[in-house]
Design brief:
Strand 1 (5-8) and strand 2 form a beta hairpin. 37% of the residues are buried. With 321 residues, the protein is of the alpha/beta class. The protein has 9 helices and 11 strands. It is globular, with a radius of gyration of 20 Å. The protein binds S-adenosylmethionine. S-adenosylmethionine binds next to strand 11.
Length: 321
């Protein structure tokens, strides 16, 4: 397969090209888990390449294009295994009088059509003032509710949608000594720390039980929003919008929970490499694909450091503090 560029090591393969073309060359039923953020239905525009999903003419064309991605993801995934999609509600514009498009709902319906069951939704809380300052969303301000609250917006949550491919899972994703690290910003209670890696009866494993209660929550309000990979260096002068890397805590939770050590994690929209980076750091193998060369180059640099990924809640502090 001819791609613009690639790096292949024992632990990962990353490609600079169109994810649909690269996935067409991957074998059927071999990927154990996938996780990614697609371009948000045209909300951000990453490049003028006509294969860039953020560069579609309209929302319908985006879904036609994205449909090929989900079909390929279904083909390459092992029966009974999981794909996780990070997304949000998409605003119709930023005039101050806008409405929201149910992007997560459309993603769910597409996956159901392509051979997946929708099995879970995690809602990732966002602090309104922080979102306002970052996005300059006009309807998200105290002034809006002072002037006319019918136009008042919200700091939309992010979602991690979890889908399982039809068919029976032949290799269980087991955690025989429970979950042994917590990715998030609210430390576990002191009294459960002694149960970490508990080898006895798992009904007694209070450490893992605490983590499970947080990870199985429909609302994740304990994600560190600032623990992300470096990305500022890959900004190009004519970039209209810039990539926002996915928070490492979200990726860590999903990969830890839903895949076994040594298995392969696929990311079709790799950006600067966050998902592949965490996958390798957690002892999985990664396959990542990114169309935009400046992001791909940043991913190449980030992947070189992947073995040093520090699991949060272990001994060291956060990676980029
Ligand atoms: C939301 S960003 C992903 C960011 C990533 N999660 C990270 O943490 O860096 C979506 C990415 O999809 C890429 N992209 C868009 N169309 C693509 C295509 N056809 N094939 C591969 N990548 C594509 C964009 O360039 C952008 O980097």
């Amino acid at each position: 397969m001819a791609v613009k560029d690639q790096v292949i090591t024992d632990n990962y393969a990353i490609y600079n090209d169109d994810c649909i073309e690269v996935m067409e060359n991957l074998p059927k039923d071999k990927i154990h888990f996938s996780i990614y953020s697609p371009p948000f239905g045209g909300l951000y525009h990453y490049s003028s390449n006509d294969r860039d999903l953020s560069n579609c003419q309209d929302y319908e064309e985006f879904f036609e294009h994205y449909g090929y991605v989900v079909e390929e993801l279904n083909r390459v995934t092992m029966p009974g295994r999981i794909t996780a999609v990070h997304c949000t509600d998409v605003p119709s514009g930023n005039s101050g009088k806008d409405y929201l498009i149910d992007f997560p709902g459309d993603i769910i319906r597409l996956h159901e059509k392509c051979g997946f069951h929708f099995i879970a939704r995690h809602t990732i809380w966002k602090e309104p003032l922080w979102v306002r300052n970052r996005t300059m969303t006009h309807n998200l301000s105290h002034k809006t509710i002072v002037d006319d609250a019918v136009y008042g917006g919200v700091a939309s949550a992010d979602y991690l949608l979890i889908f399982r491919k039809h068919g029976e899972n032949k290799v269980p994703v087991a955690h025989p000594t429970g979950l042994s690290h917590y990715a998030g910003e609210c430390p576990l209670p002191e009294e459960v720390l002694k149960y970490k890696d508990w080898g006895g009866k798992q009904t007694e494993n209070r450490y893992s039980h605490q983590i499970w209660r947080r990870y199985a929550s429909s609302v994740w309000d304990d994600i560190n929003q600032f623990r992300v990979l470096p990305f500022a260096d890959c900004k190009e002068e004519d970039d209209e919008k810039h990539v926002h890397p996915l928070q490492l805590d979200i990726i860590d939770r999903a990969i830890t929970l839903r895949s076994n050590v040594g298995e392969t994690v696929l990311t079709p929209f790799m950006g600067v490499g966050s998902e592949s980076y965490v996958a390798v750091g957690l002892g999985r193998k990664a396959v990542g694909i990114e169309l935009k060369t400046s992001y791909y180059r940043q991913a190449v640099k980030n992947m070189e450091n992947a073995p040093e990924y520090t699991k949060p809640g272990t001994t060291q502090g956060d990676l980029f503090e």
